[in-house]
Write a structure and sequence with these properties.
Rossmann fold; 2 domains; 6-stranded parallel sheet; globular; L-lactate/malate_DH; L-lactate dehydrogenase
């Protein structure tokens, strides 16, 4: 028996997540919910007709009642940021949307593990927790997982080495105050500067790079993609599916996602990203890996920026 997953939001992100999951053998039921019911129905019809090459799967466009019994609920609903719109304005609009969604999820799928994807994701993860009343271990924001993948992609291009060999993370807000803890970046366990020296001795073309340019690339990639094609969805969809697989796995996994902080690095009462243990029971807690004093200061500054936005939202 596979898992039942409900996706709220039939836009580009929600539909791409649904399409990837519809091809996974461990998913036996998919429900898509959207205020535009015809859109959700059309997406499901299109995807369902492409599932004839796998074991049978139930796929429906439904309402919140159809989310009952879901193992995972993924929330992608929200409006995209418009030209000239401030982050506060975007947050107010999407927090209002979340205020309607969260109680419905809690009512109809009270035992589900919930992944929040809509932006600003850290603020909306916090809002979902408050408005749903669900347990903290049940609620996970996609956070800086996509940023982390963008980081390792960029470094793979600079170092000329496979992305999977690089371990590095982006911490903090999924946004302009995110940062890279360079003290934690390794290539198969080797510190970055040691790897670069060793690679050059072997004649491997490991480029010099500016760390400031790398974090700018990470922060601005989404905007650059939107400028070129109008939206981003492949990268975030794959990141969310990775979280789903961790939640359905047999063992816990350490990754970077957004969840409630309880004093780690001197930060509390905000949802943000650092190394987090997740698994079949949701969030187990944060791993407080050693950071430099400068990195801790950046983490605190990022958290304070998020708290300032949350304060403006009057979330109770």
């Amino acid at each position: 028996m596979g898992s039942k997953i409900t996706i709220i939001g039939a836009g580009s992100v929600g539909s791409t997540i649904a399409h990837i999951l519809s091809l996974k053998p461990y998913v036996s039921e998919l429900v898509m919910i959207d205020i535009l019911k015809d859109k959700a129905d059309g997406e499901i019809m299109d995807m369902a007709q492409g599932t004839g090459f796998r074991d049978p799967i139930s796929m429906i466009a439904g309402d919140y009642e159809d989310a009952a019994g879901s193992d995972i609920v993924i929330v992608t609903s929200g409006v995209a940021r418009k030209p000239g719109q401030t982050r506060i304005e975007l947050a107010k609009t999407n927090v209002a949307i979340m205020k309607n969604i969260a109680p419905q999820v809690a009512k109809h799928a009270p035992n589900a593990l919930c992944i929040i994807v809509a932006n600003p994701v850290d603020v909306l993860t916090y809002a979902f927790l408050k408005y749903s009343g669900m347990k903290e271990n049940q609620v996970i924001g996609s956070g800086t997982l996509l940023d982390t993948v963008r980081l390792t992609y960029k470094l793979s291009q600079e170092l000329g080495i496979a992305q999977r060999s690089i371990k590095g993370y982006v911490f903090g807000e999924h946004g302009d105050t995110s940062f890279i803890p360079w003290s934690m970046v390794t290539v198969e366990g080797i510190k970055l500067d040691e790897y670069t020296k060793g690679a050059r001795r072997l004649g491997i073309d490991a480029n010099d790079f500016d760390p400031d340019e790398v974090i700018t690339y990470v922060r601005k990639s989404g905007g650059e993609i939107i400028k070129r094609k109008g939206a981003t969805f492949y990268g975030v969809a794959n990141s969310v599916v990775d979280v789903c697989e961790a939640l359905m796995g047999a063992q816990d996994l350490v990754t970077v996602v957004s969840s409630m902080m309880h004093g780690e690095y001197g930060v509390d009462d905000v949802c943000t990203s650092c190394l987090t243990v997740i698994g079949p029971n949701g969030v187990k807690g944060k791993i407080e890996a050693t950071l430099t004093d400068e990195e801790v200061a950046k983490f605190k500054a990022s958290a304070e920026a998020l708290k300032a936005v949350i304060k403006e939202m009057d979330i109770e």
